[in-house]
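Our platform keeps sequence and structure together, in a single record for each protein. This encoding replaces a full spatial description with a residue-level series of whole-number codes. We quote a single record here, exactly as it is kept in our systems:
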Amino acid sequence: MFFLLNYVLNYVTNLIKRVLPPKKTINMKRTIIAFIVMLICFQSYSQKPRARDLGIPFVGQTGEFNAITDVEGVEVGYSTMISGKGENVVGKGPVRTGVTAIFPRGKAKKFSPVYANWYSLNGNGEMTGTTWVTESGFLETPIMITNTNSVGVVRDAVLKWYVDTDWYSGEDWWYTYPVVAETYDGFLNDIYGFHVKEENVLEAIENSSTGKIEEGNVGGGTGMMCLGFKGGTGTSSRVIKIKDSTYTIGAIVQSNFGAKRNLSIAGVPVGMELKDTLNYKFNAPPKSRRQEGDGSIIVIIATDAPLLPHQLKRIAQRIPLGIGIVGGRGSNGSGDIFLAFSTANEQAFNRDETTTVQSMPNDQLMPVFEATVQAVEEAIINAMVAAETMEGINGNKAYALPHDLLIKTLKKYNRLKQ
């Protein structure tokens, strides 16, 4: 790195010498050095560490971005809403919420259904549109994730966006059921103030892109808490080979579940080791009705493996295994709802003609099952590692998982990857 910077500095300095006198050249060189230092610092501070950066060991090979966007065509976008502090004044704030948008084949392709299915471990939550997903076998819409009280406005905004953008490419009669999922952020966010509006939904949609995506306090995960610390949005991926074919499995989570005592990372009882460290701070209701472990988690799995709807149901049913590894128990107050889709068989959906599709044999599914569990586990930890301490309504506070103490704890159990 420093060799490269020195080369660039000398190259630019030589160019300047050709047009400036010596004194000005020295001043310009100093300016360039300062600029480069600032650039390095900005880049370093803008890139949050992820779980693997801390040395946490995980099983499996990741894709290029270690994200759901490693599945070709998948796009993710956010609208993050953070404003105000202090006492909760309903309708004014503080606001700690947002919207996440996930497009299975990207928004440019518009109406392009994918095979999909869903599963609920514990149904104290909502994911709209799933009845038709199960009945038809197809996911026909983007997936949106937000807070519990904003499901309706997000659904309506998506429908209006369909009309405004001609989502159905000229069809003058259509019906659809947008998939909108939620978790509850009312311990940090003015959830009864209904701050998510149509413009926030449109922002998440317009921001959707491939490649690297943000984690932690972003999008629908902005105000979420997880396993005794700050939670939020996280992602991960796995690349597997089955015979002569290579496939990618990606996961994205909105993580807002679990009791601290159950937090386990790399097999280490981190929650018990840190049981007296940085516990949630609740100054005002709804503290009185909250039981430890209450919350929810939404998980979306994407793959390019040629899976049919009944096989995607089987994938969705394996998601709880990844959640359980890190400490999820499917508590009574938790909405643990999951959806899996496949971007393969792009021509499968046809209203008028018989189509031919490819299907993976059930006997070859075990690597996909394992990759799903691995990606879900890592996505949850990535969300916690990226999340930052957040103070919300009435001074309620969820602390970030302390990286230094986490590393110290993993070292104690000889579980830190060198």
Observations:
- The chain has nine helices and 14 strands.
- The radius of gyration is 23 Å.
- The first helix runs from residue 2 to 17.
